[in-house]
Every structure is written in structure tokens, then in C-alpha cells.
Amino acid sequence: MTSTPPIGATVPGYPRIGPGRELKRALESYWSGASGRDELDAAARAERERTWRRLSALGLDSVPSNTFSLYDQVLDAVVLTGAVPPRFASLGLDALGTYFAMARGTGGVAPLELTKWFDTNYHYLVPEIGPATRFHLDATKPVHEYREALALGVETRPVLPGPTSLLLLSKPVDGAPDGFRPIDRLDDLLAVYALLLTTLAAEGVAWVQLDEPAYVADRTPDELDALRRAYERLGGLTERPAILVSSYFGSLGDALPVLASSPVEAIGLDLVAGSLPPEDVPGLAAKTVVAGVVDGRNVWRTDLDAALATLRAVEARAAAVAVGTSCSLLHVPYDLDAEAALDPQLRSWLAFADQKVAEVVTLAAALRGEDRSAAFEEARAALADRAAAPRVVDDGVRARLAGLTPGDARRGPYAERAAAQRERLGLPPLPTTTIGSFPQTGDIRRIRAAFRAGRLDRAEYTARMRAEIERVIRLQEKLGLDVLVHGEPERNDMVQYFAEHLHGFVTTEHGWVQSYGSRCVRPPILYGDVSRPAPITVEWATYAQSLTDRPVKGMLTGPVTILAWSFVRDDQPLGDTARQVALAIRDETVDLEAAGVGIVQVDEPALRELLPLRSRDQAEYLDWSVSAFRLATSGVADATQVHTHLCYSEFGDVVAAIDGLDADVTSIEAARSRMEIVADVAASGFGRGIGPGVYDIHSPRVPGADEVEALLRRALDAIPADRLWVNPDCGLKTRTYEQVEPALAALVEAAWRVR
């Protein structure tokens, strides 16, 4: 190795979907057959070039590359390491076809499992590793992107998942021997990473970033030893770039001294979700620390004075300090300047990705002793204005919270509720239903857009929404579903829709964030005390119920999910904010019941997502999150059936909390993981209704009745028939009617067979 340039100001990653969702449109056009490979490649190249030029122009000293992805960075690592499962490799597709088959499935081949990326709302594809997985290097993507940036005059730092985190985030391939763990294959994978580093060195790469976020969670001594072995081997290579091992979403804990004593050059620390390292970490004084002092996951402006003080403290512990964001900026929108319609006062409190890069550059300059007093003064003024703003505090909301009693979060015994609900609803065994939303067609989106733009008056908008609701009700009756939904045509997003109707929130016009693949969301911004000024869903739910004699569920989003999928205020405990949201949802459940709705579903797909990564922090979270849900749902009578829905997650370690929600029926993601969850449910003694999903809606594949029946019978091995519900994994809004109708027909047929 030769001497390497200092890192200076940098970020671990940057958004990649495009400021106007250009990549989303290119992907969906390609998948539909409306455009070809050349058009997709051109759109991807344009987004990469835009990113590198933008980050250089904003003043970063070290610009990342290989952060772009056509779908997911972990899937890219599967291709990089050759760990493509045989069922995809045997399809005979070209490289891109195989890549998208792993992401989305094809024909009779199910895709890789999709789950949450740590405690974020991003989803990654789970690698499948077995004893026979044949690793081999395919460095095409990182090398090509490094060369592509270099041709633009931008020297970059390739970013890749680290080898130990890649294996710790993987699952054993089906049929692997008992006791096999993907981390058992570390030595074989390290041979690929060693060749990768040698290849990058030959390209002239000065720095490479290997991400090891798995180590901000609890890890066993064996897993810590795997980290030590990995970086002793990779750091000991004679021909390699300088190595930055980056972590995010918390503190490294016991993993920090392991990395500090290894022969790597730099360590990236999240000093927003995590804390300052101890002063006496052996080996840290010889390293560069990339200090993540600017929050990469939330949109509030940085307290530059506090961040600079943290940087000064890190200087006393390390050989050199670089400045960065706490994690990749993938989790925030591109540019606040695009939000021209946002209230100016609120806007002054915020920073999106480009503004956060500017904060990083400002802090790096101040750390070097340059005068940045104007930027610091502007930040101080914005922080002071936010702290004093009357719009942030609602005394009525706070008084209502102060008056709550333990009884406000309790319902009657489940056995009594179940008897009352059986008498009221009269449902058959294995009742069939869906999770809530039906496909959001182009016509529906155009109607909503016309109404927002004032081209359609409220009467006409209501008439068209009602026509769509009636169409969805008639379709469900035709398919034979037992419990119906109104389809949610009026909702753009399950969190944004409620945020638009609650005080304390504001929404953006262009604040898109990638959720997975081409799926994007616009998280609302929760800036103040929350209340519900008027009913939100009652009109639509009661109209749908008037059309049919079958039960129609009222559909609401739960308080934890509203928090998880929003940018939430950071000036009070999260549990306090959750209880405010819970009271607003409680008001809606009570109004739905009063209007004659017999089933109310309060979805909490993010319950597992927000679980702290360290076990020591989990009990407090589970206490307030479960309490918030129960507060939201305990205002209704025993005969009103409360459902909830959870998805995208590993549930084994929160089954007790799911039980604590005390919902009458809980539906969960299970199809892609082939009913793995039911064993945990059975072992926990869970005693209420449960609907493990039998149709994976995140893939365009349409399951047949035989496939659904097999999943149902597997579920019945663990769940008694009188408590088993039959439903898809999630809402159907991202699918088409051509996919949904045959899939739901198969679901109903399978339920009839098993009955």
C-alpha cells in the first residue's frame, strides 16, 4: 500500500431512486416490457452521474461509489460473491434476468425473502447460504462504477457490505444441516473479498468502505471472533486499498476494540444513534474515525455547535477525524429546495440529503479551523425558533394524556370478546379476508391528483371514489371472501393519508424515499403535538358496509407504524409521541364502532421494525409500543372485533409483545418465509386469532390453489382451525387486478378445500 489521502468530509451513501423517481419509472417500464435494456441502462447511468457530480459540487472530500443499485445493495452483494441460489442459476436467464428473478420471482420460482434493514423502513433481500454455496468473485459492478466516476473526473470510494455482516444477515438455505450457520462459511467468503480488494487496488482505488452494521446489535463471542479474523486477514493483504469499516444505527460496543486492534485504517461510527467511544479503546488512537455526527435518518437541522463539540471529543481519541452522516442518506429525501410550498418557518427547521451534505462540509471546515460562523449562527437561530414555536405544543392534548388511567388501555377478557364476536359476525371456519388495500390503478391516481389540483370538486371526487369502492365490494363478493374491505382508493399511502388529516403533521410534495426496489414513500413530518380534528375514515367505511351484508373492516394505521414511517420530532420521548397518536386513532375506532362497523383493523406492520437492536433497550420500547396500541384500540366494546397486521419482519423475538397487543385477530407476513413463523406462534402459546399470510404480494407471481393449500395445511400443524384466518401477506395496492383476482380466487378455493 502507498500513502492514502485523508477522508475529510464524506457520507456513507446517498439516495439512488432519482429526485423525480426517474429510476422507479425506468424499472417499471422495463419490467412491463414498455422499454428495453438500453433505456434502463441509460437511466441508471444518468442517476449515477448526477449523484457523483452533485456530491462533488457540494464539497465532499471523499465521494462514495457502488451505492447505486437497480434493486438492493445486499442483492448486489449476492451477485458480487457468486452466491446465487441454484433455483435462479438454473433458469437459464441472462445476468439481469437472474438478478430480477431473485428480487421479484418468476414463473414458479419464489424470490428471495424480503425483510427490514435493521430498524429502518428500507427492505433488503435475504441471501440464502448453505454448506455447498460456491462463492466466486464478480467485481463487474464496483469496478465499472469506479471507472465510470473516474471518467467524469471524480475519484470515488467503493462501498460494499462487509463479509461478516453479509453472512450474519443471511439465512441458511433450505435443507441445510441442523446447526449450520451462514457465518460458518466466513473463510470461504474471505477468499472472495481478498481477491476483490486486490482487484480494486489494481484499478487504483485508494479507499474502500466495508459496511458492518450487524455489529451494532448484540453479538456472541464467536461472532466477534469472526469479525476479528475477517479484518486481520483483509487488513493483512499487501495489495489492497485503505479500508474504512463503517457501522451505523447504534454503537459498536464490544466490536469496537476488535476493529480498533485490527490492521484497518479507518472506522465509521454512528454518533447520533450511538455514543462517543470510551477514551481508552486499545488501537483507536492509531485510526481515522469517520464521525457520523449529522443524522442520516431524520430531517431535522443539525445542532452544529453540539456536533462540533462531539468532533472535538473524538479528536482526543483518534489519529484523525473525518466528518460524515450517521448512516447512508438513502433514508431521507434528496433536496429541501424542491419543497417550495412548505411553510417557511417549518422549512427552516429541516435538512434533507443535500442540506445534510452541506452540514458535513461545514463541520469539516470548522474542524480544520476555517471560519463558518455564518452557518453556525443560522443553525442556532433555526433551533431556537423551533424550540419556542407555539405550533409545537397543544395544551389540550397534554392534559388529555395526563388524565389517562390504566383502564383506558384494557378490554374485557378475550374469551368473552370472542363469544360476543362469534354471535355478531357469524363467520365460517378459516374465514377469508384481505389486509386492506386493493390495486391502485392509474385511474384512481388520476382522480386523486385532479381533486388535489382543484380540477375535480368534492362531490364528483366522492362519487368516483364511491364507484370504485362499490366495484371492489362486488369483486370480493364474487370471489367469495368472507370479510371484506373497501379497498382504500382514497389513500395514497397508509401513513401519509392519516398524517394529512391529523394536527401536528406536515407532508411534502417531493420528499420521496426508497422502501424497496421501485417502491417509494413520502414520509410525513411529525413536528408537534398530535390530535384528530374530525373523523377520517368513517364516511368511506360506512358507505362500503351499506353495500353488502358481509362484514366490512374499518381500516386504520396504528400509532407505532405512523411513527416508524414518518420523520418524527426529536424533542420529546418517542413513547410520549406514540401516546398522542394513539389517542387520535382511538377517537377514530370509537367513531367507526358508533357508525355500525363491526370489525376495526389497526395495522402495526412496523412493530418489529422499531425494536431496538440491543436487548438491553428492548423492554422499554415494547412497553410503550404495546401500551400505545392498546390505548388506540381499547375504546370499543367486546363485540367489536379488533384486527391488526404485521409484516416484513422476523417475529420470533417479539411474539410475547404481539400477544400483549391483545388484538382479537393478528395477520402476519409468512408466505415468502414459507410459514416459518407458525412454529414460534405455537411455542409461545398465542391464544387468539391468527392469519399467517398465504400469498406473497411483493412478487408479481400468482400462486395456485395447490400452493396456497399447502401453506394452509402447514399452518394448521401449529394453529387450531378455530383460530386460523386466511389472508395475503400484505395490502394489494402495488399489484395489478390481473395478478390479484386469480390469486384471491386461489386463496378462497384453498380455504374451501381445507374446510
UniProtKB/TrEMBL annotation:
<feature type="binding site">
    <location>
        <position position="565"/>
    </location>
    <ligand>
        <name>5-methyltetrahydropteroyltri-L-glutamate</name>
    </ligand>
</feature>
<feature type="binding site">
    <location>
        <position position="24"/>
    </location>
    <ligand>
        <name>5-methyltetrahydropteroyltri-L-glutamate</name>
    </ligand>
</feature>
<dbReference type="InterPro" id="IPR006276">
    <property type="entry name" value="Cobalamin-indep_Met_synthase"/>
</dbReference>
<feature type="binding site">
    <location>
        <position position="121"/>
    </location>
    <ligand>
        <name>5-methyltetrahydropteroyltri-L-glutamate</name>
    </ligand>
</feature>
<feature type="active site" description="Proton donor">
    <location>
        <position position="698"/>
    </location>
</feature>
<feature type="binding site">
    <location>
        <position position="730"/>
    </location>
    <ligand>
        <name>Zn(2+)</name>
    </ligand>
</feature>
<feature type="binding site">
    <location>
        <begin position="519"/>
        <end position="520"/>
    </location>
    <ligand>
        <name>5-methyltetrahydropteroyltri-L-glutamate</name>
    </ligand>
</feature>
<dbReference type="Pfam" id="PF01717">
    <property type="entry name" value="Meth_synt_2"/>
</dbReference>
<feature type="binding site">
    <location>
        <position position="116"/>
    </location>
    <ligand>
        <name>5-methyltetrahydropteroyltri-L-glutamate</name>
    </ligand>
</feature>
<dbReference type="GO" id="GO:0008270">
    <property type="term" value="F:zinc ion binding"/>
</dbReference>
<feature type="binding site">
    <location>
        <position position="603"/>
    </location>
    <ligand>
        <name>L-homocysteine</name>
    </ligand>
</feature>
<feature type="domain" description="Cobalamin-independent methionine synthase MetE N-terminal">
    <location>
        <begin position="10"/>
        <end position="317"/>
    </location>
</feature>
<comment type="function">
    <text>Catalyzes the transfer of a methyl group from 5-methyltetrahydrofolate to homocysteine resulting in methionine formation.</text>
</comment>
<feature type="binding site">
    <location>
        <position position="488"/>
    </location>
    <ligand>
        <name>L-homocysteine</name>
    </ligand>
</feature>
<feature type="binding site">
    <location>
        <position position="609"/>
    </location>
    <ligand>
        <name>5-methyltetrahydropteroyltri-L-glutamate</name>
    </ligand>
</feature>
<dbReference type="GO" id="GO:0003871">
    <property type="term" value="F:5-methyltetrahydropteroyltriglutamate-homocysteine S-methyltransferase activity"/>
</dbReference>
<feature type="binding site">
    <location>
        <begin position="21"/>
        <end position="24"/>
    </location>
    <ligand>
        <name>5-methyltetrahydropteroyltri-L-glutamate</name>
    </ligand>
</feature>
<feature type="binding site">
    <location>
        <position position="488"/>
    </location>
    <ligand>
        <name>L-methionine</name>
    </ligand>
</feature>
<feature type="binding site">
    <location>
        <position position="647"/>
    </location>
    <ligand>
        <name>Zn(2+) 1</name>
    </ligand>
</feature>
<feature type="domain" description="Cobalamin-independent methionine synthase MetE C-terminal/archaeal">
    <location>
        <begin position="430"/>
        <end position="751"/>
    </location>
</feature>
<feature type="binding site">
    <location>
        <position position="730"/>
    </location>
    <ligand>
        <name>Zn(2+) 1</name>
    </ligand>
</feature>
<feature type="binding site">
    <location>
        <begin position="435"/>
        <end position="437"/>
    </location>
    <ligand>
        <name>L-methionine</name>
    </ligand>
</feature>
<feature type="binding site">
    <location>
        <position position="603"/>
    </location>
    <ligand>
        <name>L-methionine</name>
    </ligand>
</feature>
<dbReference type="InterPro" id="IPR038071">
    <property type="entry name" value="UROD/MetE-like_sf"/>
</dbReference>
<keyword id="KW-0808">Transferase</keyword>
<keyword id="KW-0489">Methyltransferase</keyword>
<feature type="binding site">
    <location>
        <position position="647"/>
    </location>
    <ligand>
        <name>Zn(2+)</name>
    </ligand>
</feature>
<dbReference type="InterPro" id="IPR002629">
    <property type="entry name" value="Met_Synth_C/arc"/>
</dbReference>
<comment type="similarity">
    <text>Belongs to the vitamin-B12 independent methionine synthase family.</text>
</comment>
<feature type="binding site">
    <location>
        <position position="669"/>
    </location>
    <ligand>
        <name>Zn(2+) 1</name>
    </ligand>
</feature>
<keyword id="KW-0486">Methionine biosynthesis</keyword>
<feature type="binding site">
    <location>
        <position position="669"/>
    </location>
    <ligand>
        <name>Zn(2+)</name>
    </ligand>
</feature>
<protein>
    <recommendedName>
        <fullName>5-methyltetrahydropteroyltriglutamate--homocysteine methyltransferase</fullName>
        <ecNumber>2.1.1.14</ecNumber>
    </recommendedName>
</protein>
<dbReference type="GO" id="GO:0009086">
    <property type="term" value="P:methionine biosynthetic process"/>
</dbReference>
<keyword id="KW-0862">Zinc</keyword>
<feature type="binding site">
    <location>
        <position position="645"/>
    </location>
    <ligand>
        <name>Zn(2+) 1</name>
    </ligand>
</feature>
<keyword id="KW-0479">Metal-binding</keyword>
<keyword id="KW-0028">Amino-acid biosynthesis</keyword>
<dbReference type="Pfam" id="PF08267">
    <property type="entry name" value="Meth_synt_1"/>
</dbReference>
<keyword id="KW-0677">Repeat</keyword>
<feature type="binding site">
    <location>
        <begin position="435"/>
        <end position="437"/>
    </location>
    <ligand>
        <name>L-homocysteine</name>
    </ligand>
</feature>
<dbReference type="InterPro" id="IPR013215">
    <property type="entry name" value="Cbl-indep_Met_Synth_N"/>
</dbReference>
